[in-house]
């Protein structure tokens, strides 16, 4: 079904809330179908049909630009920032004075993009979808009037906009696993990561201890010099750190962010001092203490692992006594698990984390590569965006239509915007329900 009437065209443009100046011509095959069935006012009524956009925008447009009107201002988002060349640029046109403003741009800017699409959300934030990008680099929020932006406008005395990277996946609380050396923390974590590779990500700590034979830098630890690590601690790069068995160990803020950016749940393997620091931090986590069935068994495991000298083993065992005391009695931990039989302990760990065999991460349904359809890339309905794209690797539907659900969106500048969910939909079946409003259902 196609529809090209002027009223419908206006409504579609309004709904999109933007003008892609280059690709302004739409075929309304799918949008038309949705819009006709919507029966409700779109969240954003644009007063900015192409004809209404002041000439300045047109004349200033350099190819891949998108203009969005918010109140008395038009935000022009340029796929290539003509100053930096490597990022997406933003300029503002004041509609009344017809003057161009170069705002102060806060946050990490998205990399330049050959084509993109933009949609206004809640009058204070623009969602920019980058074409031909991985799903982790695809969604960016340009905050134009949020409290964060307003606050900085006051202090900086200038027009401000702020970028916040959108992260797919409803990332759950990180998991802190502690316990004495040799109890089996690493073994349990490896099992989890093996069984649920797309769900969990390991927080790679920094340490000043020397690597063991099979340990790789950047995978098991970031092996580092004490001087460097001490300086980085001073610079505030660490969420927590502690002196453990004579060496410095620490979790950098980045180590946890990287996992969350990948849409995975972060697992931290840290000692009890570190767990206490994390508890006192802003990171809301689940704390699990692993205890050995007996001290003798702990010693047996440490010796059997054969990774430490006798002197180091003695030191670790001495520290283990104190750790066991603190772990069991401090009230710091939400769960205490005895690692006697490995399989039994692993099953208990999974039940604490509410895991079943074959459970997939919501992320498994995301397209690997998001490539926007130029003709009708993005439209918005309530808290859902319909994205028409080419999904190179996961061809879950023949039409490549995806829904991006923003209803659980949280965070924002200066940090990431999290809680985005994306799934494939079939526009021919997942559309209208009884009250004539669009409802979307998962097709995967
Ligand atoms: N339930 C178990 N029964 C017997 N051996 C076990 C069990 N769990 C782990 N092990 C073994 O105990 C040794 C120590 O385990 P692991 O390295 O996982 O301990 P860890 O708590 O991570 O130690 P560290 O804190 O020093 O890194 C390993 O050789 C491992 O194979
Ligand atoms: N406080 C922190 N403790 C950490 C961190 N990374 C590891 N650890 C703990 O150190 C001991 C010894 O580990 P090993 O690899 O040398 O055997 C162990 O209890 C780990 O849990 C960290 O970032 N912070």
UniProtKB/TrEMBL annotation:
Keyword tags: ATP-binding, Coiled coil, Kinase, Nucleotide-binding, Transferase
GO molecular function terms noted in the UniProt entry: kinase activity
Signal peptide limits: none
InterPro entries: Gal_Oxase/kelch_b-propeller (IPR011043), GK/Ca_channel_bsu (IPR008145), Guanylate_kin-like_dom (IPR008144), Guanylate_kinase (IPR017665), Guanylate_kinase_CS (IPR020590), Kelch-typ_b-propeller (IPR015915), P-loop_NTPase (IPR027417)
Gene3D superfamilies: Guanylate Kinase phosphate binding domain (3.30.63.10), Kelch-type beta propeller (2.120.10.80), P-loop containing nucleotide triphosphate hydrolases (3.40.50.300)
Record-listed E.C. numbers: 2.7.4.8
Matches recorded under SUPFAM superfamilies: Galactose oxidase, central domain (SSF50965), P-loop containing nucleoside triphosphate hydrolases (SSF52540)
Coiled-coil portions: 303-330
Residue ranges of domain Guanylate kinase-like in the record: 172-354
UniProt xrefs under Pfam families: Guanylate_kin
PANTHER family named among the record's database cross-references: GUANYLATE KINASE (PTHR23117:SF21), GUANYLATE KINASE-RELATED (PTHR23117)
Protein name: guanylate kinase
Organism: Datura stramonium (Jimsonweed)
